[in-house]
Design the sequence.
């Protein structure tokens, strides 16, 4: 498709000036509509070094309200993030805002493939797949995504580089990396071409713009934006309001309804055995933590379970002997006002671990598939989509080197009642039980359907559920620690 | 003071176990009260390497609710931030939460002074002064600040290091930096001692805890926390509710009331001269931006002014030719629900520039001294304190290498009316004018008093106000650019 672009197109200066003025006023008016309608917009700019993306952006944003757009270029700190997509999640626009990304979420992986020591096609393809999933996720959540590719031929780029390098004031435009990339123009060309074709087929097209004539490119770029923003606004205005989840409670989605009921909750452990077992494992966990830190491994430990199942208690024993500087507990409740402005996964993305960190999620993104589904806080379409989205998230984490361990702590309905009653009696634990806990309990059957769905459909081999029999707290706590130690044992030789 | 600590204190194991159990239950109960009362708590742990701060923290937090405290250790990424205090601002607890900082905001500066190539006493003292101001700011805003120093003598530390280094499982406890610091024990001792004494005098004391006997240290630490948290809760419960600002509007605080009225607003520029002048300056600004990026200079450009004074228009001309990847415009409106949980400066701290970044604030922290004061959104005490706090903030930025340029764009009341009316007529500008603008206009005289105060009291030489005569937009826009270019000209030789 790249080779079909007519690079001879150009625009005389007078026509350009007039058209640009009109266009940028129309874009400014559209921007105000975006704000009113609360549409988040992501614009991705890709193309050859030397096409002058900075100037192209500039010539169009002049009439936009600078308070509602952001341009994200490459990170000046030079720190490489092992989670490539984190940067893009972090900078997602809230409703009414525009984020322009200079270079796409593909570019780092492409550079690595072409310029790196070893061309790992498998890794590249995996990244491209994740990117496709990511794009679908944000589009599904209501983001207007506009991808633009500015094209030039190899000889013209070379000529432009030479021109710039000869001028004192422009010399700094051309970096060593730019020149190095240009040496591999053909390799980049065929890879971009492949990506552009594949994205075209999957309906998520790139807008290809000939950038040899600057004036022509500006107007083309502006017209693409205008057309796409107009479509986004029309779509939003005519969008049927999704009814909130109703079927969410009653119907099994997976057909799998007996996972929980098949668990044998009779496992138990005496207090003495428990104390002994705990002590030994906690010592081993401390060594494990040091190793994780030393090797720079990012870890996610995720806990879900019924109210009063013992999530907090298990976490407490897990961290008891750990160095508190090595882990962080992330309590998850209903999203706050700011979090609610974004994709439901956004608030988790910004809390993912860095190298050597252990993040312990006390509840998690599975809220989408439990409380939000059962209580109708999202539409049927939204929670049904979430099975796939969550699997994609977890795959991405694991493929990027994060160790993801998920725990479901199971108790039966009678045990929950016993614990609720006991909490009511204990002055030191009364604060732990609220009216909401009792209300949730009334919906036990609905939740059981939802949990069975989530345990069976979000259970990929690389991030499978550890089911913990929780009627005996002692047994449950020790089993959690055992699973964690077992997971790392072979790997790290702890 | 350090030399007066009795290091011989110890606690037998049985007594320790019993006391610790009681203590940690009481601390857990206090934590729940903190949540109810919405008190943010900052605990700073300082002391010699080898005292085992990790274990000390651990032994006490066991019964705390892990969802409401965080431990912040040293940054694993190893990136040094030129704004040392940014990390602490970023991790401020919201109401009801506890942040434990392992090592204090002094430690980096102290290491640099003792271990660095050149012992810069002036720099150290300046940092210690900033820290004192910072502590006062957070305490004034309602944070309960608890500072703890764990003490041991040099020989005992040495013995402990040797013991650890001999054990395979504990070898990694002792880092090279620990050993290096220990070589300079005496220098650290006298410096810490000086800081502890000074802080004692200024009423912001360190709790000194002998840490030779681990058991004794744990109980002491716990008792300090208990006592301090109890005091914080009592204070909060008995705190008089501050009446909102009433005198804020009518009375001049500085006695300086004529700064604005003395400005000569007759300056003007013809359209032709304007166009020519703009073009030249915008070209120079582009070169300046490249230089700023290249040299890694952090820049804050701050714009304040009446409604319709032309802040947006000036920013628009400023960024017109800039590379959009080099700057960011930060629009400032009323704080959102999350921002409202923190100190009023918090939301600005987290947006400060990094090296090579230009942050353009469209309105700023001066909201405290204008709209919040005049409308009574804060108490008299709060806005009166803000003159000092804002001066401290700006000094800190400048001393850390940030270039801070502040602009007040002035128009008179008649000119504002003309612009409001013109906006009402222009279909493309109608959105810019709201009922609030008209309401603010009614309070012109109150605002004039507030602005005169802020311009005269927050006008330190290193971050002084540029007063821009704004009745003629052309003149104002060119003058803004001139001031920016002039500021950097000599410095960067652009």
Sequence:
């Amino acid at each position: 498709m790249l080779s079909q672009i007519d690079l001879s197109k150009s625009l005389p200066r007078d026509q350009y000036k007039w058209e640009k003025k009109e266009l940028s006023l129309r874009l400014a008016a559209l921007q105000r509509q975006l704000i009113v309608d609360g549409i988040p917009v992501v614009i991705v700019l890709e193309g050859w070094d030397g096409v002058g993306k900075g100037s192209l952006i500039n010539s169009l944003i002049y009439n936009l309200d600078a308070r509602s757009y952001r341009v994200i270029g490459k990170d000046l700190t030079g720190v490489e993030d092992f989670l490539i997509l984190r940067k893009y999640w972090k900078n997602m626009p809230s409703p009414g805002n525009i984020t322009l990304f200079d270079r796409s979420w593909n570019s780092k992986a492409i550079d690595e493939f072409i310029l790196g020591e070893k061309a790992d096609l498998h890794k590249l393809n995996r990244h491209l797949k994740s990117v496709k999933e990511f794009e679908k996720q944000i589009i599904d959540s209501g983001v207007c995504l506009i991808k633009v590719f500015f094209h030039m031929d190899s000889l013209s780029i070379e000529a432009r580089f030479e021109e710039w390098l000869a001028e004192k004031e422009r010399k700094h435009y051309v970096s060593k990396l730019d020149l190095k990339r240009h040496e591999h123009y053909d390799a980049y060309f065929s890879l971009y071409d492949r990506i552009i074709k594949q994205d075209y087929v999957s309906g998520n097209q790139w807008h290809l713009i000939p950038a040899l004539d600057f004036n022509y490119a500006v107007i083309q770029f502006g017209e693409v934006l205008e057309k796409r923003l107009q479509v986004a606004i029309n779509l939003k205005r005519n969008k049927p309001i999704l009814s909130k989840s109703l079927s969410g409670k009653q119907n099994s989605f997976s057909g799998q309804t007996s996972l929980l009921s098949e668990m044998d909750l009779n496992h138990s452990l005496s207090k003495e055995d428990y104390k002994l077992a705990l002590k030994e494992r906690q010592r081993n966990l401390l060594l494990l933590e040091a190793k994780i830190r030393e090797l720079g491994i990012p870890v996610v430990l995720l806990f879900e379970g019924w109210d009063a199942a013992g999530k907090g208690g298990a976490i407490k024993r897990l961290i008891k002997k750990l160095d508190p500087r090595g882990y962080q507990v992330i309590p998850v409740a209903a999203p706050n006002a700011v979090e609610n402005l974004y994709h439901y996964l956004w608030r988790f993305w910004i809390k993912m671990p860095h190298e050597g960190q252990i993040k312990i999620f006390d509840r998690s993104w599975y809220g989408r598939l439990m409380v939000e589904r059962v209580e109708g806080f999202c539409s049927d379409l939204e929670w049904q989509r979430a099975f796939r989205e969550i699997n994609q998230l977890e795959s991405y984490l694991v493929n990027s080197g994060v160790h993801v361990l998920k725990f479901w702590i199971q108790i039966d309905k009678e045990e929950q009642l016993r614990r609720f009653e006991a909490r009511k009696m204990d002055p030191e634990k009364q604060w732990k039980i609220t009216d909401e806990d009792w209300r949730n309990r009334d919906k036990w059957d609905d939740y059981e359907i939802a949990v069975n769905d989530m345990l069976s459909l979000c259970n990929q081999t690389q991030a499978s559920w550890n089911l913990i029999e929780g009627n005996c707290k002692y047994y449950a706590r020790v089993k959690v620690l055992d699973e964690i130690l077992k997971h790392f044992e072979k790997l790290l030789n702890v």
